Amino acid sequence: MNKYILGISGGSGALYSLAVLKGICDSGNICYLTTSGPGRRVLSLEAGLNLTGNPASDKKILKDNLSIDDEKLELVDENDVGATIASGSFRTKGMAIVPCSTGTLGSIANGISRGLIERAADVCLKERRTLIVVPRETPYSLIHLENMTKLTKAGAIVLPASPGFYNLPKNIDELVNMVSSRVLEKLGIVSSNLKEWKGT
Prior knowledge:
The protein is of the alpha/beta class. The protein is built from seven helices and six strands.
């Protein structure tokens, strides 16, 4: 049983974040989840989940809606910079930020910790742990691209939410699974939703 961190920041893509959350927990691992205010707003708009920022009540909402075991999910207040995941001595296997807003991406790329998502990401970089950022923005400005280059040079994996169509997806869930399974794979979690390209 490994420990992973999932950050949900503002930016369209709530279905991606929920699929990654469920994938981490269903694989028998523990997910430490922290959400920003804009991230919770997107979860409400796109997934109908009205999280308040209160870890206890939000955990119950997520457990009930995603059928996640209680011991597999830990919610951490975004303002708790003294939380376990804010320290390098708390060993995790890595972190994914899904979706990663360009503001959050820029803060991490420039070493600015505005809250727990950025601080936990900074810890992953300094401890040389896996950090995956999933921007869902289009088009990208030069500033966005330069920040992605900075993060890549620092050791992060930039994995845009860009689903492919070679497996002939039949519905939105299959498109979501294509991206979420790639995130899980980069975290070292084998997802049953990952469809390998078999050639023509």
